[in-house]
Amino acid sequence: MVEQPGIRARRLLVNWLSAGWLSAALQWWFVLGIALTVKTFIEPRLHTVYTAFAGSARDWWSGHSLYVGRDYFYSPTFALAMTPFGMWSDRIGGILWSWACIALLVYSLRVFYRDVLAALDWPARAEGMFLLLVLVGSMRSFWSSQSNALVSALVLLAAAAAVRGQWWRAAFWLAAPVHVKVWPLVAGGLFAAQWPKRLAAQLAVCIFALGLVPFLTQSPDAVAGQFAGWYRCLAERQTHGSRYGGYRDAWTIWEEFHAPVDRHQYLLLQMGAGAAVLGWCLWQRLRRPGLPTAQLVMYTISAWSVWQLFCGPGTERLTYNLIAPAMAWGLLTSFYERRGRTLISLAAVATYLFSFGATERMLLDVWAPAKVLEPIGILLFAVWLVQHAAHAEPWPCAAAEPQGSVEPAAPATYIALRRAA
Q1: Burial class for 271, CB neighbours closer than 10 Å (0-12, 13-18, 19+)
Q2: Number of CB atoms found within 10 A of residue 418's CB
Q3: For the chain, N or C: smaller number of CB within 10 Å?
Q4: Nearest-angstrom CA–CA distance, 249 and 322
């Protein structure tokens, strides 16, 4: 069958535009990598937490404590995993670390888009727009070489694996960030609560197995001592440590308008918010049994991001990259569906723009409580999410939810676009 000239020209134009958006997005991620390389080469030990990561690897192999007299708050497993970077100088290792985090996050975003968001039947250019929106929300975290990009990438890979029915792989990806920062355990718990038979035991096994890896490299007493030091470090920081001025969460709002904040009451707030998020996620699964795994996974990641940034431990400006994938999905969804645009746009501005310290400092000169705008942005996103989920139709792949490890069929439109590209 001969394709009519008009249809062929339209198809070529669509392919060119979609490839242009994706190419532009990847180029801007590459520019970020170049900028980080220059920054790290000039000042490898300033405005970075990478030196703490690399130092932990060196401390591990030299037999020194990871936590006494150190600014290291991560697990012994993560210290061991940093060995390939710590063996280099801080300048070279820092550059490699930045590129590794960028590569892993971009890869996870593309996998996540392919396996989770493809069901939405967006235009082909949407993937490039999605990558660009996440880039805007992640730049600040990358600039200080944080591990948050790694955490986000691992959770996204877990979500994609769950949609494909690869539950052991999903459990591994959910277990790994727990050994970077403990609080991703909440993400794993939300997933396990919704798919207990497929994920709960597997997640526990993977967390335990990753915790055993350091025992292969040091004596059992030495490793147990390091894990005990990790526990004491985290407990001291949560119960008696001074609060870091860069934190931006519910405590920030409370402190601004009704100081001082009572730690015990705040803990109750954290627990109550966690229970509400868990209940909401379970309600989405139970009230509409036909919802596909991809849609539930998107809701789960969004709800987890809301809890972590609003009520979770250690939420600072640099942690706000966690909301970037969910916020990008929300922005694209609202604009393609033509509803909820104002609310999601306000949430994006509050979380994206004010994650930069310079923007916040300018506003503080005009309005003293300006530091509450970021957590308020998270609340706005939470309101948008609840409203959206209440009115959203099941995604097109509702009838194709995979069983076991069977890969779900991709929507025909998405396959056609990819073939055309």
Answers
A1: exposed
A2: 13
A3: N
A4: 13
Q: Report long-range pairs for 56-59 (Cβ below 8 Å, ≥24 apart).
A: 56/82, 56/86, 57/82, 57/83, 57/85, 57/86, 57/87, 58/86
d(CA 381, CA 252): 17
Contact 154, 174 (CB under 8 A): yes
Per-residue pLDDT at 15: 53
Q: Token pair 């597997």 is at which residue?
A: 202
- DSSP summary character for residue 316: B
Residues of the chain with pLDDT under 50: 1, 9, 12-13, 16, 398-401, 403-421
What is the Cα–Cα distance from 253 to 295, expressed in whole angstroms? 31
- Give me the sign of the Cα torsion angle 140, 142, 147, 148: positive
116: tokens are 């989770």
pLDDT for res 414: 36
Report pLDDT for 397: 62
Give yes or no for a contact between 147 and 43, defined as CB atoms under 8 angstroms apart.
no
CB 174 within 8 A of CB 206: yes
- Number of alpha helices (DSSP H) and beta strands (DSSP E) in the chain: 19, 0
Closest CA relative to residue 343, chosen from 378, 304, 394, 395: 378
DSSP letter assigned to residue 397? T
So what's the pLDDT on residue 410?
Answer: 37
DSSP 188-219: HHHHHHHSIIIIIHHHHHHHHHHHHGGGGTS-
- Cα separation values, 164 from 167, 191, 285, 407, 419, Å: 8, 14, 17, 5, 21
Separation CA 94–CA 371 (nearest Å): 30
Kindly state the DSSP code that residue 119 receives in the 8-state scheme.
Answer: G
Q: Is residue 73 a contact partner of residue 233, using CB atoms and an 8 Å limit?
A: yes
Say whether 247 sits in a helix, a strand or coil. strand
**CA dist., res. 117 & res. 131, Å (int):** 12
CB within 8 Å of 390: residues ≥ 6 apart: none
Angle at 190 between CA 121 and CA 129, to 5 degrees: 30
Portion of the chain with pLDDT greater than 70, in percent: 89
DSSP string, 263-300: HHHHHHHHHHHHHHHHHHHHHHHHH-TT--HHHHHHHH
Locus of tokens 């991560």: 74
Q: Give the pLDDT of residue 51.
A: 96
- Residue boundaries of the structural domains of the chain: 10-420
